Amino acid sequence: MLGFSNLDLIALAFFATSWVGYHYAVELGPHAARTLNMRMNLRRARWIREAAGREVRIVDTQVMGGLQNGTAFFASTSLIAIGGTLTLLNSTERVVAIFSDLPFVPVTLRSVWEMKVIGLTGVFGYAFFKFAWAYRLFNYCVILLGALPPFDSKDEKAMAHAVHETVEMNIAAGRHFNRGQRAFFFALAYLGWFLGPITFIGFTGAVLIAMYRRQYASDAARVFTYPSGP
Fold first, then answer.
1. pTM reported for the whole predicted model
2. For residues 174 and 44, is the Cβ–Cβ distance under 8 A?
3. Which residues, other chains included, contact 180 with Cβ-Cβ below 8 Å and sequence gap of 6+?
């Protein structure tokens, strides 16, 4: 189909299944609460509650600014990556000729190469939209942080509602940021397809294992020895 072999289609299906399956495992699955991301969400909530009890919240706004700057960096990097992949389309014939001379690399048709590059562009495009939306949500979170009632407010209901809004916005921003980074990691796996479907499957499996270990068995995950309180 379109010049792709059956093994190519199997490798692509494995890639897509791995991405969707990993998304389910770390965000919706029965063990999602044990992931590094979810544990950090509890700390995000604790941070906002602590900020609500502080008279001066300058440090909290600085932390939020750091999160925004990091997100903006990745969004800009995504645009650069998109430009780089589109540039490859102008060098199709030269690149195909180079790859044809490499050992252990199957001969690639021009149409197949272009479809692969377009697919990689789509991955980086997805990452850009996730990072851009995360940046926007962090902006909203700064506003909500500034809208928190004074630390000595007597209206406990209003304070609890404001804290809840800020926490949920912060978690949502972090969730979209994580999805953008996930796209970057899977983009590395996608690069294996340019070397052949077997390499594609191997790269995807290696990235999947590395990401899984970071969420469940990394040194960062072992930092959290107890859950954060409500």
1. 0.88
2. yes
3. 74, 75, 78, 126, 127, 128, 130, 131, 134
Per DSSP, helices labelled H in the chain are 6-27, 36-52, 58-89, 92-100, 110-146, 156-190, 197-216
Nearest to 52 by CA among 140, 151, 138: 151
3-state SS, residue 67: helix
How many whole angstroms separate alpha carbon 67 and alpha carbon 47?
14
Interval 203-229: pLDDT, tens: 999 999 999 999 988 888 888 765 555
Kindly give, in sequence order, each residue whose CB lies less than 8 Å from that of residue 219, ignoring residues fewer than 6 positions away: none
Measure the CA–CA gap between 199 and 189, rounded to whole angstroms.
9
- The whole-angstrom separation of Cα 187 and Cα 191 is 6
In this structure, are residues 202 and 7 in contact, taking their beta carbons and an 8 Å threshold? no
Return the CA Rg of the chain: 22
Handedness of CA 230, 26, 138, 224 (dihedral sign): positive
Burial of 70 (0-12, 13-18, 19+ CB in 10 A): middle
Give tens-digit pLDDT for 91-139: 767 766 666 666 666 656 677 888 889 999 999 999 999 999 999 999 9
Using CA atoms of 23, 24, 29, 34 in order, give the dihedral in degrees to the nearest 10.
Answer: 0
